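Let us work through a complete example step by step.
Step 1: write down the sequence.
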Amino acid sequence: MEYRLLGRSGLKVSVLTLGTMTFGGEGFFAKAGNSSVQEARRIIDIGRDAGINLLDTANVYSTGRSEEMIGEALEGGRKDLMIATKVRFPMGTGPNEAGLSRHHIIHECEGSLRRLKRDVIDLYQVHEWDGLTPLEETMEALDTLLKAGKIRYVGCSNYSGWHIMKALAIADRDGRSRFVSQQIYYSLQGREAEYELIPITLDQGLGILVWSPLAGGLLSGKYRRGKPMPEGRHLQAWGEPPIYDEKKLYDTIEVLVAIAEAKGVPAVQVALAWSLGRPGITSLVIGARNEEQLKANLPSVELKLTQEERDKLDEVSAPTLLYPYWHQASTARDRLGPADLALLAAFVKGPSRF
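Step 2: predict the structure and record it as tokens.
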């Protein structure tokens, strides 16, 4: 297993993080999976034996049941495993049982600690943007929990570029702890994060945890052009990630599968290896419905792609340049920095307009 520093912190995390959305499987989250405590314990053990040192969950997963199952599975030991959880989504029907107010953050942190049977949460992440709560209140509440020793690091998830920069600016201005990481969707199927989120990571020293690096199973190799769709999470009204260009998706899958077949490995390993080699990536959050699925993903850490293979995958899945990026690629190429080139490197070949 490889370990990378989480942003500018001194914390080393494994390049694969074990996602636990499948634990419990109650209500809406039953579509992702419904592992029992015994199955969860076995999946955690397999991941731990492979070197995974971070588990990722959220209070909203099966309305706390995922956290409870982690607490039950780890009870009595295995403190070497770190836990990341999240707060933001509704945990009840009351007017203050959602969002990122001081009230909700502190109340839900205490609830997560009880369910996890822990004294401290290693990484506490705001799960989604809250446009009604002042960021000053959110950042102050997180800082209070840090100073109280209930959480060790803070991160955000599913924020836009300006959301992150505003939060970091407020933290700096007020002397609060900054986000150390962001958790984002990013894969060969959807590379929108390259517009702002990955450049911000490189510029501001954040870590990146990637959720759904296999695009909800679309990059598993089971979804092929002109063939019957298999049963799977993406087809069960999950709706994430959205598919905007079906032709491009299948073009990408064809290149992915061709490289996998040439290397004699499953397509999932090639997709994960591609993600691990992208700028700014710290760790990929991989979930597993069963032991076999987890074991199939683990070897991706050791898989090395040639530059030619990476170039083929980059080209077929490249995002369309939106404004102002197409303009920058044409007229600013003489003054682009590393963060800019995370998106624009492939588009600045050839002579400049000026």
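Step 3: interpret the result. The chain has a mean pLDDT of 93.
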